[in-house]
Specification:
single chain; alpha/beta; 60s Ribosomal Protein L30, Chain: A; Alpha/beta knot; 2 domains; 6-stranded parallel sheet; 4-stranded mixed sheet; 19% strand; elongated
Length: 252
């Protein structure tokens, strides 16, 4: 592996370089296994020792640990790193009437975005639509935080107000607010879009104008003094669970 190769792979830690090359990196044995099970295109696979994932022997370049350390975007480098092509996405998805989608307004923390994508995967949500100022889903920290969900949950970036106004003509648009209706007592639908706002500022005014149903996750006991707000990823998980809980068939 040449110095230019190392420099090019290392540069993918920066959004500008990822956008220019339409590439991103994936690190770690478990993540590579998830990648191999997906339809994503691997451009390059680098390992410190020959590895087999689930019976699959992938063609890989073997490098020493010192080289892997130079390539890695992690504090503690792993034994495998892949360079992967970013899939081409439309500005936003076509959402079925009985499908749920998440819309993320200016989520800035990579860990939060990765956890939300992972949460969407757990609850069978296959559409995550982000505002352009939301952190890049192909950031190394986001990719790691998804624990492989990034390969199953398509993520889109578009102007949320326009997307939500169009969507609201066909299905409900919900949003998490501190002045909303109790999510556990509000009638919920099988399909719709759930908006989650910025970690500190919540949902922006322009996006809030397109929300038709304001939801609140109440503290317990309801109305008691508690923290100012919940973490964005935690809020997303609780609201997704509330929606899915209404339509579960429990077999005792």
């Amino acid at each position: 592996m040449t110095t230019a190769d190392i420099k090019q792979i290392k540069s993918l830690g920066q959004k500008k370089s990822r956008d220019a090359a339409h590439l991103f990196t994936v690190e770690g044995d478990k993540m590579i296994h998830e990648l191999l099970e997906s339809a994503f295109e691997i451009r390059r696979l680098v390992v410190t020792k020959p590895l087999t994932w689930g019976g699959k022997q992938a063609a890989a370049e073997v490098v020493n640990e010192a080289t892997m350390k130079r390539l890695s975007h992690l504090t503690t480098p792993t034994s495998a790193l892949a360079v992967v092509a970013q899939p081409v996405r439309a500005p936003y998805p076509a959402i079925g009437n009985n499908e749920l989608a998440l819309a993320l307004d200016h989520i800035q923390d990579p860990g939060n975005l990765g956890t939300i994508i992972r949460t969407a995967d757990w609850f069978g949500i296959r559409h995550v639509v982000c505002s352009p100022d939301t952190v890049d889903c192909y950031s190394p920290k986001v990719v790691q935080a998804t624990m492989g969900a990034i390969f199953r949950v398509p993520v889109y970036y578009t102007a949320l107000p326009d997307f939500l106004r169009k969507t609201a003509q066909q299905m409900p648009v919900y949003g998490a607010f501190l002045d909303g209706a109790n999510v556990y007592r509000t009638p919920l639908t099988t399909g719709g879009v759930i908006v989650i706002g910025n970690e500190s500022k919540g949902i922006s005014a322009a996006v809030a104008d397109a929300v038709r149903h304001r939801l609140l996750i109440p503290s317990f006991p309801e109305g008691s003094r508690a923290s100012e707000s919940l973490n964005a990823a935690v809020s997303a998980a609780i609201i997704c669970a509330a929606f899915r809980n209404r339509f579960l068939t429990i077999d005792f």
